[in-house]
From TrEMBL:
Sequence ranges assigned to domain ABC transporter in this UniProt record: 80-322
Pfam families cross-referenced by the UniProt entry: ABC2_membrane_7, ABC_tran
InterPro entries given in the database record: AAA+_ATPase, ABC_transporter-like_ATP-bd, ABC_transporter-like_CS, ABCG_dom, ABCG_transporters, P-loop_NTPase
Record-given protein name: ABC transporter domain-containing protein
Main location: membrane
Length: 762
């Protein structure tokens, strides 16, 4: 008999091999963290030493604490213009946003502010193409061309108000997978790692890079750090424009200020940052280059420099009390809580006042080219003086010892060997020497936002590109290469499988508990089958039915978390360019190991508890049919039914199919009636029927069947042999039918995931 089930044994071997791969992958991932920590420390020490070398020469030099190595934007700059933008609700036609006009200039940080109900988030959704709940009116221009930010999805990052993150992954893993999935397929691994380092540094997450994010039940990183991760997921795609919906909500004033300062750094590399904020402290408010204030009814009451808001309202006749937070006072003015010198000017008239008294926000002209030339001459003179003081004046190149003396003359005393080797690579050491001009150029480049060294040039040539090109006033056509193409399925799928495999291993405590519960259920339902699993026992089909129903309920309900709780995560990843098919199949692939494991475990424990006759493989085949079908039901309902009702919906569905339609006596009575169609369509009929008929075949044939169960046997045979015209046995028919049902249910789940809530995937 063992030879009959050779393919089942091969499947078990593949299953065990898959489990080994998952465990080995987890061990490799764990060891890689140590290497990543060491690499991060080396790069930070190298940066610190570079900064100290510059300040040792010119103490008051304006040198950034960190220079970006991977965050080279996909396009140099984006200008967003909008004219008379409005939104009308599809439900009742009510206008919730009206006539918003203005612009978001490139390389600036802008805030959208207003009292509650002013339409701040609605306006951001409108210009991003995410206002699926209404009709958008007016014009939106991207680099002078009538368009929508939704059409340049590859160049846009959108940070939702809720912190939608992978709770089982570490901070670094979150950023890494976002960078892998949202950058070009051919981006080298080294370039991806530099992007990750940039994001971790700019968002101040380096100290917690290997911490699990966690959730409400399992405490992980802090709320402020979680918010930074939420932003970092978008930064990993190197967007040219970053849109954020209330990134400071729920944070204390100090943490909020730190986050805004981090975002302010991004404008130095060419990024346009636009965010909705709610009554910030004034020191935070002044960090914004531009402010768009919306009044009640969703109309513009001010758009211009943040420093110009207070003078503007004063000119209108509003007077701010001493010691008042100006940002809070602005909201009170807009909400009509502050009286004006002119009684006729009410809050409803602020929009009209802005239209009639609109100010042009002038730029501080005059390039600082002359100042930069003077700074360079000052630095060169200081550098020559320093070299002379060290006895290195007049040398065209420095050897190892001379360079080490130059380094030690600064505050960078305790430089590790790894950091020193990294520094030499960046400087372009060759044959143990570095040219004097290369050292000077490196130190001069330290004053920029990007790294300018021997290694950064390699990264650009390998595919990161440069964001320092000229600014174009007109967008290319949608087929232009700057928009890129959505990554192929064959690229995204293995990345997502790897991500889900890590999440799978991290939830091992849940797996242990689930396995224990499955074992308990197998013992209980197996024990009540003792001495009843023979053809002559009238209870045999009923006990088989109950055991299949138990397994089906466990598997179906256990499959709900595959998509149920993570639908917001899917909406975000789909909006960022992740293929629905890759996301869906990666989740199903990894969770398949749980379904198969429970099948093998339940069958083995159940057989021991039931002292079941027949061989293990016969029972396994039948139970796996039930598990596959129930898994399909769970996947389908997890994508279609709200999370809070999906458990009940799954239980009801499986109980109706397995405990009602496919119950042995119901099948016997269904033959020859309309109920036979329902029994035919239920996968439990095929799994239970195959199991019962196989028991009969192996334990004496139909002659051994109890007289009162003959109609049950005939009912199952009628349905199971109705396909194939008698040329296909009932086992093969059952296999095919349950497999088709499971595949169709999973396919329906995929369609539901793809086409439901389409607006949230924009």
């Amino acid at each position: 008999m063992a030879g009959t089930y050779w393919w089942e044994q091969c499947m078990l071997g593949l299953f065990v091999a898959g489990y080994v791969v998952l465990v080995v992958n987890a061990l490799i991932n764990r060891r890689s963290r140590l290497a990543q920590t060491s690499k991060s420390k080396i790069m930070n020490d190298c940066e610190r030493c570079s900064v100290e070398m510059v300040r040792n020469i010119v103490p008051d030099a304006a040198v950034p604490e960190y220079r970006f190595r991977g965050m080279r934007l996909k396009m140099s700059a984006i200008h967003i213009g909008f004219e008379k933008v409005g939104v009308k609700l599809n439900s009742d036609g009510r206008c919730i946003l009206e006539g918003v006009t203005g612009e978001f200039r490139p390389k600036k940080m802008a805030a959208i502010m207003g009292p509650s109900g002013a339409g701040k988030t609605t306006f951001m959704n409108a210009i991003c193409g995410r206002a699926y709940y209404g009709t958008v009116t007016g014009q939106i221009r991207v680099n002078g061309k009538v368009s929508s930010i939704a059409e340049i999805k590859q160049l846009r990052g959108f940070v939702p108000q809720d912190d939608i993150v992978h709770e089982q992954l570490t901070v670094r893993e979150q950023i890494y997978y976002s960078a892998r999935l949202r950058n070009a397929e051919g981006t080298p691994k080294a370039a991806i790692e530099h992007i990750v380092e940039d994001v971790l540094n700019v968002m101040q997450l380096l100290d917690v890079q290997h911490s699990i994010v966690g959730d409400v039940e399992k405490r992980g990183i802090s709320g402020g750090q979680r918010k930074r991760v939420n932003i970092g997921l978008e930064l990993a795609s190197r967007p040219t424009i970053l849109m954020l919906d209330e990134p400071t909500s729920g944070l204390d004033a100090t943490t909020a200020l730190d986050i805004i300062r981090s975002l302010k750094q991004l404008t130095a590399i060419g990024m346009t940052v636009v965010m909705v904020v709610h009554q910030p402290r004034y020191s935070l408010f002044t960090l914004f280059d531009e402010v768009l204030l919306l009044g009640l009814g969703g109309r513009t009451v001010y758009q211009g420099p943040s420093q110009g808001v207070l003078p503007y309202f004063r000119n209108l006749g509003f007077h701010m009390p001493r010691h008042e937070n100006p940002a809070d006072w602005f909201m009170d003015v807009i909400a009509g809580k502050v009286k004006n010198e002119d009684p006729s000017l009410r809050c409803t008239g602020l929009a009209d006042s802005w239209l009639s008294a609109r100010q042009a926000s002038g730029e501080l002209g005059g390039a600082t080219g002359q100042n930069r030339r003077d700074d360079k001459l000052t630095f060169l003179a200081a550098f020559d003086e320093k070299m002379d003081a060290l006895g290195l004046g007049g040398l065209d190149s420095l050897n190892d010892a001379q360079f080490l003396a130059f380094v030690h003359s600064s505050e960078a005393k305790n430089l590790s060997d790894g950091a020193l080797a990294e520094l030499k690579q960046r400087l372009g050491f060759q044959d143990g020497q570095i040219a004097r001009k290369n050292l000077v150029n490196f130190l001069l480049g330290m004053q920029g936002s990007f790294s300018h060294d021997a290694l950064s040039g390699i990264l650009v040539s390998e595919g990161l590109g440069s964001s320092e090109g000229s600014f174009s006033t007109g967008l290319s056509s949608p087929t232009s290469s700057i928009f890129g193409k959505q990554a192929r399925f064959c690229f995204q799928y293995p990345v997502l499988v790897h991500q889900n495999a890590i999440r799978w291993v991290r939830s091992w405590r849940h797996k242990v508990l689930s396995t224990f519960l499955v074992t308990v259920a197998a013992v209980v339902f197996g024990a009540q089958c003792r001495e009843k699993l023979t053809p002559e026992n009238i209870l045999c089909p009923l006990k088989i039915n109950l055991s299949h129903l138990a397994l089906g309920l466990m598997v179906g309900i256990a499959c709900l978390p595959i998509f149920g709780a993570d639908r917001p995560t899917f909406w975000r990843e789909s909006a960022s360019g992740v293929r629905v098919s890759a996301f869906f199949l990666a989740r199903c692939t990894v969770f398949m190991f749980d379904v198969l494991m429970w099948c093998y475990l339940f069958t083995g424990v159940w057989m021991l508890a039931a002292d079941a006759p027949c061989d293990y493989w016969m029972w396994l085949i039948a139970f796996r049919m039930t598990a596959v079908s129930s898994a399909g039901i769970g996947v389908l309902l997890s994508t279609m039914i709200p999370e809070h009702t999906s458990t009940l919906a799954t239980a009801v569905t499986i109980l109706i199919l397995g405990g009602g339609i496919s119950e042995p006596q119901s099948v016997a009575e269904a033959v020859g009636t309309y109920k036979e169609v329902a029994a035919f369509l239920s996968p439990f009929t095929w799994a239970i029927g195959e199991n019962y008929l196989a028991v009969i075949d192996q334990l004496g044939g139909e002659d051994a069947v109890n007289f009162f169960a003959v109609d049950i046997v005939e009912g199952y045979k009628t349905i199971l042999e109705s396909v194939g015209g008698g040329h296909i046995d009932y086992v093969t028919n059952s296999y095919i039918s349950c497999s088709v049902f499971g595949v169709l249910a999973v396919l329906a789940g995929y369609i539901g995931l793809r086409w439901s809530h389409r607006g949230k995937q924009a």
